[in-house]
Amino acid sequence: MARFAEHRFDLVILDAALPDLAGLARGRRVAPADRPPLLFLTTCGLLHGLLPELGPDGEDYVTKPVRIAELLARAQVLLRGRAPERQGTHRYGDLVLDDSTCQAWRGSRQLDLTPAEYRLLRHLPANAERVLSKEQISRHVWGGYRADPAIEKLVSRLRRKVDEEHPALIRTRRGFGYRLGHPGHRNAAPAR
């Protein structure tokens, strides 16, 4: 449940037999608009304890043993009323970019970016896992050549904003350039 604030999910399926369903209360602190619908897997014996927990905000249950067709049908019903992702919104792990407002978020935290920082951050996910040279970054962000120190300063500022409080996404490939690392890779090379 704590991951609601870190990542955005379309639907969460929880086994009601999990020992820490007190986490459900923590999940309810997330605004319903930001919280995905919950679908519980339960046994008939646990149903009496689960029913009071179910609320009107996109929560349902399926009894075990689960029939896949029923699980899929319930999931579709829960997802039906959800607002579709706005056009111009791009995601990379817990990084969200909204081109219509030129705003970015990492997890639940909005990033305060300059136009150049936003252009660079928008360019990195489009080239994820590829190393971008300083020349490529300069051409994309400013439309022409900028000296290496200007690019290094831009990347440094952006890295402080994006990677603050989170695992590093912006990685340096010494002598080659920069890339956006995969947010889920724990074995990735050091970011700096």
TrEMBL record:
Domain Response regulatory: 1-79
Residues of the OmpR/PhoB-type domain: 87-182
InterPro entries: CheY-like_superfamily, OmpR/PhoB-type_DNA-bd, Sig_transdc_resp-reg_C-effctor, Sig_transdc_resp-reg_receiver, WalR-like, WH-like_DNA-bd_sf
GO (cellular component) term, any one: cytosol
One GO biological process term: regulation of DNA-templated transcription
Pfam families: Trans_reg_C (PF00486)
Top-level taxon of origin: Bacteria
Residues that bear 4-aspartylphosphate: 15
DNA-binding residue intervals: 87-182
SMART domains cross-referenced by the UniProt entry: Trans_reg_C (SM00862)
Keywords: DNA-binding, Phosphoprotein, Transcription, Transcription regulation, Two-component regulatory system
Keyword RNA-binding: no
Molecular function per GO: phosphorelay response regulator activity; transcription cis-regulatory region binding
Protein name: DNA-binding response regulator, OmpR family, contains REC and winged-helix (WHTH) domain
Lineage summary: Bacteria, Bacillati, Actinomycetota, Actinomycetes, Kitasatosporales
